[in-house]
Structures are given as structure tokens and as C-alpha cells.
User: What shape does this take?
Amino acid sequence: MRRLPEADRDAIRIAQDPHFSRWLEQITATGGCAHPVHLSGSTTTLDGATGEILRQYDTRDEPGERLLVRCRNRRATVCAPCSRLHAGDTFHLVRAGLLGGKSVPATVRNRARLFVTLTAPSFGPVHRTGERCRPRRDGGTCDHGRPLGCAAEHTPTDALIGQPLCPDCYDYSGHVLWHAHASKLWDRFVIDVRRRLATSVGLVQSRFAHHARLSFARVAEYQNRAAVHVHAVVRLDGPDGPVDEPPPWGTADRLTDAVRASAGRVLVRTPYSPAVGELLLRWGVQLDVRPLHADGGGDGPGDDAVAAYVAKYVTKGASETGAGTDHRVITWADIDTAPVSAHVRTLMRTSWRLGGLPEYAPLHLRTWAHTLGYRGHILTKSRTYSTTYAALRAERAQHVGDAEIPDAITEAHWRYVGSGHTPGAALFAAGIAEDLAQNRELACEGRNV
Ligand SMILES: [Zn+2]
Ligand SMILES: [Zn+2]
Ligand SMILES: [Zn+2]
Assistant: This one.
């Protein structure tokens, strides 16, 4: 036994523990979470009228006197099982807003619904895949002596993809400041779409809310050049949201026109800086607007495909997409050692440098240097789009028999006592996570037959 690796010896020790089967139940309940949170505490459920104890739970009776719960991290690089669960929840959340379900009526599928992709503008030419990168007949060089074009044919795995042709010409300040204002640009965009819709049907703008409501779910994704772009589902309802039919003028064509016009028009001004000046930030000219069709007809993508597409992006960490890192950088030296490309490192350094200027203090650029200045959530949705992550988790808790008892009072006392696994426990957890993933795959195959 002494010759076995430490993890195996630890696993054998765990398996010989008299509480092993209960411990395994706990690990299974976390879905094989890679970094579970350890809690110590108790809950007591009392009858609201009589004060009689209906149910009592105390971690004193558990192995190690603790309960393990999921870390709930959305990133696959941090915890694969929890990220799968999060992707599933995102899929259901986005899908419910498109097709109904989870308290959203099925009639939403007949409304005007668009799948919109908004991009960042150009901050300078970067190497790209495709036939030829950036062909130029007249050749020529920039002020730094670097070629203005690139005649190469890059393969998709080429490390040059997304890197600027000239780092000295590239507008790094513009890129970082655009990230820092992207959420504001989105808010202005939504307000402007409402305005345009109102104007197009002769409504006073302040009356729009009495006639219709715009709902959306959007997800941010880093492109090759490490600039965020936004995929969004946009839907037009009646004034009370999903339960309410939109007015007859609320067609997909009218919504498309408003989205296109607003995307080209809205802008955000950066605060004036002696070092950078004042920038006018807009969306990039690349814009994609596709109406979604209820019957899967037309040439638009299907509802399920859109929900799956959006769900895929929320599980990607910044490190996985090759933009930034999953952890905050604390010092300038952290940026030097981060496992990122030269382009991303320069973006991180630019965030750090601009973050030291008083005029940009409200943007917290040093706190968000690891995400290159972007500080929005990966998934954002309006209140009436569909359900919430919290509601989906509550629903799952009920499925595993933790249903609410009516008229009951619950007293709970919980304390954090640690996190993670010992090397042997990690082996068991990984095995369980793999089993669950395989079962899910088999179940999916069964459904498709
Ligand atoms: Zn986890
Ligand atoms: Zn190139
Ligand atoms: Zn140059």
C-alpha cells in the first residue's frame, strides 16, 4: 500500500470509513462537484400553528460532521459538473423565453423574437482566418515599419489569429474603454429600440410602456481579437410582459428595423482624459439580426439551437476563450506571468495603466484587468424575459424531495467550515461526475432514437 500514489491511499482510507456510503450519497448529491463547500449546521422545521417539530436535520450525524454542497461555478475550467448544470439552467432559461414553459405561456413563440449579434468596432487590423489574411496590392508599411497587409493563409489554430498586424498602431485604450462601457452601450441601445418603435407607430415615447414591453437575454462572448461581442434574444410582449399579447403593430419586421437603426446610432462618450481625450464609443458595423420563426420555418435558426448556442457561452471562462484569465490580477507583476498572448497581455497592462488615472476611477479598470476592462455579467436578462436561476434551482430541490411544507417555519443555522476535496475524495467525485455525464448522454441518445 505504501507504493500507491497518495490519492489512491487516501481513497482506500475513505472507502474503509464506516460512514462511506452516506459520504458517497453526499458526493452524488453534489453531482461530483470538484470544489464543494463544506457546511456545518442545522435546520428545524416547525408547524406554524402548533409549534410541533416537523423535521430536523443536523450535520452532527453526517460523516465528518459536515454537509457538502455544490460550488456552482459556471466555468468548465473551474468545475466541470457545476458548469454543466449551469449550462443546463441557462438553456432552460433562454428556451422558456422563446418557447414558453417555467411559468412563461407557450404563446410567446408567436411573438416577434429576434436573435441579434452586436460586435465591437475595429481597434486596428488583426490577423484572421480565411482565404488570405489581409491582402494589399500596394504593400506599404506603417509608421513603425511593419507591413500594412498580410498575404498569409492562417490555419484556425495559428497563434497569430486575433493578434494585431502592428501592436503599436492598435488602439489598446479604445479597446479597453469600449469594454468598460459595453454594458452602458447596451442599455442605451435597448432604450433607443423602444424609442424607435414608439416613433414608428406615432406613439409618444413616454406612452410606450402602456402598449408594449421589450424583453431580452444577452450573453457576452470574447472574439479572437479578445473583444467582447453580444448575442441577444429580443422579444416584444404586451405591457404586462410574457402573459400579455403585444399590440398588432408589434411585428418582427418593425422590431428588426428598430434594432438595426438603434445599433447604428447609439453612442457613449468616455469621460475626458488628458492622456486619452474623449472617445465616442459605438457598436461595430458588423451586425446580425435574425427573426426566429415559431414553426422552425423560414431561414432563421431554430429556437432550441439558439438556446443551446447561448448556453454554450456562459460556461466558457475568460482563460478558455483565450481572453484574460479566470482570476483577478492583484499586481502589475501578475500580468507579466499570466498565461496569455502578447495581445491580451497588452490589453491587461492597458487596463491596469488606465485604471490608475483618476478620471477613470469609476470604471474600476484594475479590478477588471483580468477580463480586459469588461465588467458585465456573462449572461444578463431583463426582469420579464423568463424564469430565474434561483427559480430553476428551487425547482430542482423539490424534485429531490426537499419540497416546501405549507405553513411551516424553518430555522436554519449554517456555518462555512471549508471547501474542496482531499486527493482521494477528488477521485471519487470525478468518477461520479463522469458516471452522471455518461448517464445523461445515454438518456439523450435514447430520446433521439
Ligand atoms: Zn462545483
Ligand atoms: Zn495574417
Ligand atoms: Zn504601426
Remarks:
- The pocket of zinc ion (ligand 1) is lined by residues 33-35, 70-71, 73, 79, 81-82 (CB under 6 Å).
- The chain has ten helices and eleven strands.
- Residues 80-123+171-317+380-387 form one domain.
